[in-house]
Amino acid sequence: MTRTTLRRLGVSAVCALGVLARTVPTFAVQDPPPPQAPAATPAAPAPERPATPEPRPYDRVITKEAKSDTGVFTVHRIGERLYYEIPKAELGKEFLWVSQISRTTLGVGQGGQAAGNRVVRWERRNNRVFLRNISYDIVADPSQPISKAVEAANNDAILMAFNVEAVGKDDAPVIEVTRLFTTEVPEFSARARVRANTFDATRSFVERAVSFPQNLEVEATHTYSTGVQVQNGPGNANAARPGSSSVVMHYSMVKLPEKPMQPRLFDERVGYFNVRQTDYGRDEHRAQSRRYIARWRLEKKEPNATISEPVKPIVYYIDPATPTRWVPYLKRGIESWQEAFEAAGFKNAILAKDAPTKAEDPEWSPEDARYSVIRWLPSTTENASGPHISDPRTGEILESDIQFYHNVMNLVRDWYFVQVGPLDPRAAKLPLSDDLMGQLLAYVTAHEVGHTLGFQHNMKASSLYPADKVRDRAWVKKMGHTPSLMDYSRFNYVAQPEDHIDPADLIPRIGPYDRWATMWGYKPIPGARTPDEEKKTLDEWARQQDATPWLRFSTADAAGSDPGDLTEAVGDADAVKSTTMGLKNLERVSNMLLGATTRPGEPYDDLEETYGRLLGQWVLEMNHVTAIVGGSESQQKVSGQAGPRFTPVSRARQAQAVQFLSTYAFTTPMYFVKPEILRRIEPTGVLDRIRTSQQRVLASLLTGSRIGRLVEQEALDGSTAYRPTDFLADVRKGVWSELDRESVRIDPYRRNLQRAYLGIMGDKLNGRQPATDDGRPLARGELRALDQSVRNALMKVADRATRFHLEDVRDQIAKMLDPKFVAPVAATPGVLALGSEGLECWPDYSIRREMEDVQSVDRAQRVF
């Protein structure tokens, strides 16, 4: 569909991924309102709008003092005033307006952060020029009658109006646009991004304006007042302070392609970001949603060649602020995608370049929307993000700025040590060598570049290799330990020292899914002149997933229920087996910890931080097993593909998972209880740390959604299902296993776990949101059964502490079952935020003492 055939309706919004969001309004047929009674007295006539001033002579407006720059518009600067001279040919054309923070006050956002984008158009009406906001949410072919209704319902919003001050050559209107950049225009404002209260126009001004053939760049200082303290992210010392903040905003206005790229239809079987339109002009009985994948425009120099260089390659520049020693590794991460594009028929499709120096190009700017840049941000935030900007008409990616926060290095360093420290001699002592850290940064870069090429996360991928293969040296050398770099399958913690995996193969890299998905989205389809003519070929390619499972993508609607659709998982085709191997490595790491993280004369900060990461990794791996219970394996399919999309996990596998957790999660992991570590980092706290870790696993296992899925599986599958009554009984017996012994003795760690169990079950009856379905009677039944077991066990108690504990348990159960005893619910501490705004790919899962009261919930797919 070309630009001239579109009719638009709706208001553009900006999503965190840098793609224009699409919100389709719903229209309802309503009776007309009743006529209003006439007013008792006639209203006063509205004042007339002053007549628009007539344009003045050109040389009286654009005087000899003007500093002018010619490009897509001619920009004139006269003192503090800024003028645009708009060629008549550019009126009515569409531009992408991109807002970015260029520089900022400490603690108020970050330089390089995106602040929104939208499509705009300049229109002249007599002696006025209007800047309009354009949306492509809803379209219709103008040859169809309904296009008139779509057009009548659409009136693109006017963002600002300007008087024509003068008329230049070929009837080009000259307008003063100073206030566009020195007042707060809501659609372009960064107030929400910097979390400010008010905008002060008296302390705002235009810094720079320059025009190029296809784009126009303006920088302006905006000053805000911040009345409250703001926290940008956990562990971020750069918290905004009350007072004033001056932010340099960079605005790029880029002309959209005159010839829109032919879009490619989105398919849920392949993980691309996409733009959405609702098309009222198609021959359907309801308005059809049309989704086009986000991708760069790649065209072969040699169209008939099997593999060809592109006419215009994808180029990423390295921010000049990047520490010099990391630049080669960031370039390596960018260009690692070249092999994926070769599968699509393109050679050297993606290139990494140094940013030009001032001497080489004085006008070059990392905020210029013509350039894609990896921005290195001086932030203690441990994250990175990869947004991109797309043409809303076609999904064509026009530009991307990857945000690379400095302290992501600390995060990947800790993860590498905790997950594979025993497998790589280079990780036996912190800090890591520059070469190893560089390889980790190349991995982070490649993952974020993947997002900017159009790829979503694919959490399903890592579960589609046979679990044993991630320990197979030859397999991992050829295939990697995960099929996709876009999975959250970090480092190969399942491999064992005796497997002799090459350390270079412990780090994820471009995998078979990445190559296949790049082919699916970017390979030209000769002879297809429209998106619909490509559908048959695209469907044939997508069906290759049936024969090759590791080409599959996460299934729509499966997040939270598919045990193969997990974050931070390796070998989750069999989470029980893989977690068993992972726990062996965690025990090895616990023995390495003191020697690896301490240095003479230095505090124990690294020891404390890494110990918290170690416990967090333990929780992650245990929760990969909890996901099996109540789970359904899935494959995204369309009509014509055999078999269901969802298949419940077998009863035997679910019961095995609960038994594993009883043995390994609910039995105290004593290899974490090391006095030589703990008494170097805190006077007390190990009981709280272990309780927090076990509670997070137990809470995840006993969520209401999981129990609800078990109830439904029993309703559909009868006796072959893992009944929720059996599940809850198995969990109770695992947590309270001491009660069946001849002599009952319960140590402090287990007493803490058992109190956590009571709290979770009590919340199902009397919490803020008590269960209203089968969860309530099931919880009552389990508490009554537990009370009977405790009463019997009291006759076998071996020590006073255990007796007091069990007597207290009976008292607590009695109160839970009789609501009149329930105390008011205290406020629960909020879950610590993970990272800052944007598409964040590197969440911190460490266990800290301040998180001791945080309860886990079902871990849905994280999309940042």
Task: Estimate the helix proportion, in percent.
Answer: 25-40%
Query: Outline, from the CA principal axes?
Result: elongated
Q: Report the average pLDDT across residues.
A: 85
Q: Helical element count?
A: 22
Strand order of the largest sheet: 3-4-5-11-10-8-7-6-14-13-12
Question: Unreliable stretches, pLDDT < 50, 5 or more residues?
Answer: 1-43, 228-240, 825-838, 849-864
Structural category is alpha+beta
Question: How many β-strands, per DSSP?
Answer: 24
Beta content: 15-25%
Largest sheet: 11 strands, antiparallel
Straight-line N-to-C gap: 31 Å
Q: What is the radius of gyration?
A: 31 Å
Task: Please tell me about this protein's structure.
With 864 residues, the protein is of the alpha+beta class. 31% of the residues lie in helices and 17% in strands. The protein has 22 helices and 24 strands. Strands 3-4-5-11-10-8-7-6-14-13-12 form an eleven-stranded antiparallel sheet. A hairpin with a 6-residue loop joins β21 and β22. α7 crosses α13, α15 runs parallel beside α19 and α19 packs parallel to α21. It is elongated, with a radius of gyration of 31 Å.
Give the topology, please.
Layout: E1 13-14, E2 20-21, H1 58-61, E3 67-69, E4 74-78, E5 81-85, E6 94-103, E7 114-125, E8 128-134, E9 138-139, H2 146-153, E10 158-167, E11 173-176, H3 178-182, H4 191-194, E12 198-211, E13 215-226, E14 243-255, E15 274-279, E16 288-293, E17 314-318, H5 327-335, H6 338-342, E18 350-354, E19 372-377, E20 384-385, E21 388-390, E22 397-405, H7 408-420, H8 434-452, H9 473-479, H10 512-522, H11 531-542, H12 544-547, H13 575-597, H14 605-626, E23 632-634, E24 646-648, H15 651-664, H16 675-681, H17 686-701, H18 704-717, H19 724-735, H20 748-766, H21 775-793, H22 800-817
Helix pairs in contact: 5-8, 7-13, 7-14, 13-14, 14-17, 15-19, 17-20, 19-21, 20-21, 20-22, 21-22
